[in-house]
Fold:
Amino acid sequence: MSTGGRGFQFQEPLLFEISREGRQGFSLPSSTKPRREPPEALRRLNDPRLPELSEPDVVRHFTRLSQWNFSIDTNFYPLGSCTMKHNPRVNEEVARYTGFAHVHPYQPDETVQGCLALMHALERYLAEISGMDAVTLQPAAGAHGELTGILLIRAFQTATGNPRRKILIPDSAHGTNPATASMVGYEAVPVKTGREGRTLASVIAQEMNEDVAGLMITNPNTLGLYETEIRDICDIVHSKGGLVYGDGANMNALLSKARPGDAGIDVLHINLHKTFTTPHGGGGPGAGPVAVKKTLEPYLPVPRVVQKENGFAVEHNRPQSVGRVKSFFGNFGMLVRAYTYIREMGPEGLKRVTELAVLNANYVRARLKDSYHLPFETGQMHEVVFSDKFQKENGVTTIDVAKRLMDYGFAPPTIYFPLVVFGAIMIEPTETESKETLDRFCDAMIAIAEEAKKDPELLRKAPYQTKLRRLDEAKAARELKLRFDFTNKR
Amino acid sequence: MRYLPHTDQEIREMLKTIGVADVNGLFSSVPDSLVFKRPLDIPPALSEIHLRNHLRDLSRRNAHGEEWSLFLGGGCYSHYIPSSVSYLISRGEFLTAYTPYQPEVSQGTLQAIFEYQTMMAEILGLEVANASQYDGSTASAEAIRLAVAVKKRRKALVARSLHPEYRQVILTYLKNEGVSVEEIPFTPEGALDRPALKKALDRETACVVAGYPNFFGVVEDLSDVAEAAHAAGALLITSTPEPLALGIFRSPGEMGADIAVAEGQSFGNAMSFGGPGLGVFACRKEYVRSMPGRLVGETVDAEGQRGFVLTLATREQHIRREKATSNICTNVALCALAATITLALWGKQGFKELARMNFDRSQDLKERLAALPGLRIAFSGTTFNEFVVLPRQKPTDVVAKLVDDKILAGIPLWRWYPELAEGFLVCATEMNTDEQIDRFVAALRRLP
Ligand SMILES: Cc1ncc(COP(=O)(O)O)c(C=O)c1O
Structure:
């Protein structure tokens, strides 16, 4: 396959297909050290078939690949629950300062005072923002934070005599919640969401007993609704000796407006790669700090950063700790970015973020409510869920709407989630989108709703304007090809 | 607020469309008793100029590898990162993209991950690799979970010479899943103690986990360990904190490993105080349906053109919920991309030569240190770029003294290994200049 193409539409083969024997894109320093021979028995038998390319080959290859990606830098990415907001470039710049990027985690404490000071301050800010008492920055992502949090609950329950067996999880929860509960040895018990799209205290009261270690609740929930009965729900869980886990992936809706800790949440993870503008990188890295109330602090993962008279220190000796969930100190590079963002915004800025995020979601809701079915009537926070009920009358489903939206230049929203809404279309605009962008998006959505009535076939074959047409996912799973097949290389 | 585009006029228009009087009206579903009414107690906003100055000041309170001589390894390594790597991963189309759930608009990320999966499978000598785990430690724990699931056995034998933090993470992950974890000691060569292993291997053992190279930098042939494990019906898992070693040393697959995990930070990712790392995960094809995490597969589009998609999603939490192979969702895709670009630049030859160079330099340093009076090398086994040194003085004192010379000397081992309380782990890579190495040797010679 060649690297040619038509006009500015290019083809880009795999690295292994453009490789040419003898090319190299890397210069090694010359070595004055004598050559040594590793013992014969330890020597590698077959070299890995890495490609052989010049630096221009590599730069062009990856630049081309990048151009096939949709990204928040290129257009509106209305993915519900993912909080795809603008990623400030200053974050990237400071995280690459040599004094952060070239620091080793096992340096003596006195040589890493900047890192430790930053972590200590970030812990304090996140505690204040969430209304909690203490924070660990170690977890590497939201799901990893959930794991940490449920381990904390288990440690607490075990210390009080019995780890218990179950965790209650509303059926609208993200799949990571039940997966996490079972990794920690709990039975995940789904709780039905009420007809208004909210968890009901009365239902929790029925399900809650001495066998339940805790409840995992997302607030605002994955329907974008504030759990109005949260205070009562927490009281009920507490009254039976349980703890409440808050899935804080949706903190963008709460900054400076309401704090999970004030509502009775005992432990909460925060996705820095959502609310606090660390970029998603095509699927990470993220960071999922966990904030807790005082009662859970002794169980936090080791090590902890502590402030001493002569500076910050790393403390390892915490006998009640659940242990370590990751090597070193967590995803420090992400912590720098989140810290930078909080310092740039300040208290007023963060409040404004939430106000405008909620304004944007409600605006999209208002503009689309006649074209798409709204399963719930009540007030919306930072995201809004529609269904394909109206479109189904013409045989058009959510996936068709999503694929067609690409032809209008927008990333599809989150689809078929949450599972409790059939044919869900979940839109989270975030505060960094302007009214013009939202209007362009809403116009496109409305035009698609019209197309669905007039020409359903058009939607079912979409997209037309993308680099590739609809991809055969069933084939990929049936004929698993997970790596390049070198035997076919010419 | 430069990140917020709204004008007052637009806000008024939007509120009107929605039908509420003011912004507070949007929050009416939050019960009044739960509305947060005071300003957050965090510092006031900084302008971009002051922000950068502040962050620069903070960063300057750290000693860093561009001004100091750094001889630290232990699972996090200083290697040269070609300029094009940072440049390419900073492209917004990679940096600010989401998980590639919609393949038609994510072919860039998807193809790069497919290339990454191919490279990692090649390097580790196994059939399939996934699209990344958080880091080497969590990948090690997930590998044991996989072995436990496919073998339906409840015991894991873990080398004491495995990275101590990986062992801690393994314990944290497995303690509630009813899996018992037993340690296998190490020998005076720094190798896995074979007789102890044979004694511990039984019909309940799901897997043996060995560091390769191990935490002491020791590289050993594990073929016989694989055989012993297989004979007992268990799997061999290798865990590699420094996969650059695989440029010259036998691959895990070539030794009979069933699952191989690694920390891929060495491939183009900055040390960054230890995170993010890159959890590499590879295994035999027969276990792919039990694999934790994301996979990219090749397919075609409606017009028959080659393309790539996420596949086997039915293993994952968003579909399988509490029955998923793992809860991992967001991983470290950008770090995997950095590794892919770096390995493409190094290429087949560069990977080998760089590994060779690290081996030669660290051998040289090891021999020069061994020749110093009163200083010993702890283990006689072959090492890759790091090794354990036993000085005459307390390791923490040595480290503290050398700080005065802007040398970060090594990692004292007392915290994890009371039996090696007199030792510290020293590492040399291509980043240590000849002059740095000479100064380091001289500084150690000068110690009383
Ligand atoms: C509501 C919710 N909870 C948990 C998670 C898991 O977070 P992560 O992907 O960082 O593991 C996500 C995001 O994917 C989410 O939207």
Chain B has a mean pLDDT of 97. The radius of gyration of chain B is 25 Å. Residues 113 and 160 of chain B are 33 Å apart (CA to CA).
